[in-house]
From TrEMBL:
Entry's Gene Ontology molecular function annotations: flavin adenine dinucleotide binding; sarcosine oxidase activity
Record Gene3D superfamilies: D-Amino Acid Oxidase, subunit A, domain 2 (3.30.9.10), FAD/NAD(P)-binding domain (3.50.50.60)
Matching InterPro entries: FAD-dep_OxRdtase, FAD/NAD-bd_sf, MTOX
Taxonomic classification: Bacteria, Pseudomonadati, Campylobacterota, Epsilonproteobacteria, Campylobacterales
Keyword set includes Flavoprotein: yes
Every FAD dependent oxidoreductase domain range: 4-348
Cofactor: FAD
Coiled-coil blocks: none
Key word Flavoprotein present: yes
Organism: Campylobacter upsaliensis
Protein name: N-methyl-L-tryptophan oxidase
Gene Ontology cellular component terms for the protein in this record: cytosol
Keyword terms of this UniProt record: FAD, Flavoprotein, Oxidoreductase
Length: 374
């Protein structure tokens, strides 16, 4: 079988790339080492935050606006709810860089937001913060159901004719502009073009190529999240999600829609080199205390700890996305530590870049590998 595009990694970006490629009439093979969805990547755990007023910088906002539109179109087309638009609340001090970046993006892109003081935040959302802190509410954003989104994108790609291959890639070679991908259990497939979006452990994939690729540095970080009893004080009917900037730390989470109040902490975790090093929750003593030590300060009405979970985040050297060609007809999207919200936009863009053999000027400027050579 000769495919137009082989997509290595059918998670966050790969699932939507497969969907848009198949929708365009391309013969597509979605490849993953594990049956998707699974709990061995970066997207499991039910939910991922969606926001547009972006503390990481305004260069992301055009992609976010495109993603917001595509999430809505996908929901409408396939009659499924994937996006809770109950509002996202950013909280921090006025001198915090993240909050200042949000204010800059609001002004630059004329985003729909509302500022709140500490008293209003506690009265409306039950979050206790210092009097000199403030909040920025994005009423039209919230969170996306991550596992469900990946599953549905793959299903719709299949409905449009995409093939699914669950196997371990062993080797990729190229002859006369055709790639041959060899696998552990299936003999091989052939493809005209390859999209790599294999997440945290993408180096396992890159090592399989017999020919030279542009060098990519992506590391994996083991992260934990906690769930707490909300005791009726933090329901999803009040708010979808939140971000709290506290000193040099970044907390994020989701109001209770099923298992309790879910909270993660950005400045924590362990760098890991393999899946084997991604230990289950509780393997490290700090798994319990790294969030627990702070939580009741912000959420005084919270109940007991319920459970914890582990995932892994892919990180580039500068924590920004990497979106670029690694060689002719081999395209890479990675380093997406905060990337799930972008999934449909990045998936669509990855397919279109491969199809046209061109890199968008703004993407080239902000996310290409050339920035590491400057």
């Amino acid at each position: 079988m000769l495919y137009d595009i082989a997509i290595i990694g059918s998670g966050t970006v790969g699932a939507f790339a497969g969907y848009y490629a198949a929708k365009a009439g391309k013969k597509v093979c979605l490849i993953d080492k594990f049956q998707t969805p699974h709990t061995l990547g970066s997207y499991h755990g039910d939910t991922r935050i969606f926001r547009i007023a972006y503390g990481e910088g305004s260069k992301y906002i055009p992609l976010l606006q495109e993603a917001y539109t595509l999430w809505g179109e996908f929901e409408k087309t396939h009659k499924i709810k994937l996006f809770e638009r109950g509002g996202l609340l950013n909280v921090g001090s006025y001198d915090n860089d993240f909050m200042q970046n949000i204010l800059t993006s609001i002004k630059e892109f004329k985003l729909n937001t509302k500022q709140l003081n500490a008293k209003e935040i506690y009265e409306n959302y039950g979050i206790k913060i210092a009097k000199d802190y403030f909040g920025i509410l994005e009423p039209d954003t919230g969170f996306v159901y991550s596992d469900l989104s990946v599953s549905r994108a793959i299903l719709e790609a299949q409905n449009l004719g995409a093939d699914i291959l669950i196997d371990t890639l062993k080797n990729v070679d190229k002859k006369e502009d055709i790639f041959t991908l060899h696998f552990e259990n299936k003999e091989k497939i052939k493809a005209k073009k390859i999209l790599i979006c294999a997440g945290s452990f993408v180096n396992e994939v890159l090592d399989c190529f017999d020919f030279e690729l542009a060098p990519v540095c992506v590391k994996a970080k083991r992260k934990v999240v906690h769930w707490y009893e909300s005791l009726g004080h933090y329901p999803i009917s009040k708010l979808s999600s939140f971000i709290i900037e506290f000193e040099d730390d970044h907390f994020y989470g989701f109001y209770d829609f099923k298992d309790g109040l879910k909270i993660g902490r950005d400045q924590s975790g362990q760098l890991i080199n393999s899946r084997e090093e991604r230990k289950d929750f509780g393997a490290y003593e700090e798994d319990f205390r790294e969030i627990d030590a702070y939580i009741k300060n912000f959420f005084p009405k919270i109940g007991s700890f319920k459970k914890g979970s582990v995932c892994s985040y892919p990180l580039s050297a500068d924590n920004d996305f990497i979106i670029d060609f690694l060689s002719e007809n081999v395209f890479f999207i990675g380093g997406l530590s905060h990337g799930f919200k972008f999934a449909p936009a990045l998936g669509k863009f990855g397919f279109e870049a491969l199809n046209s053999s061109k890199l968008n000027e703004d993407i080239q400027k902000h996310f290409s590998l050339s920035r590491f050579k400057r």
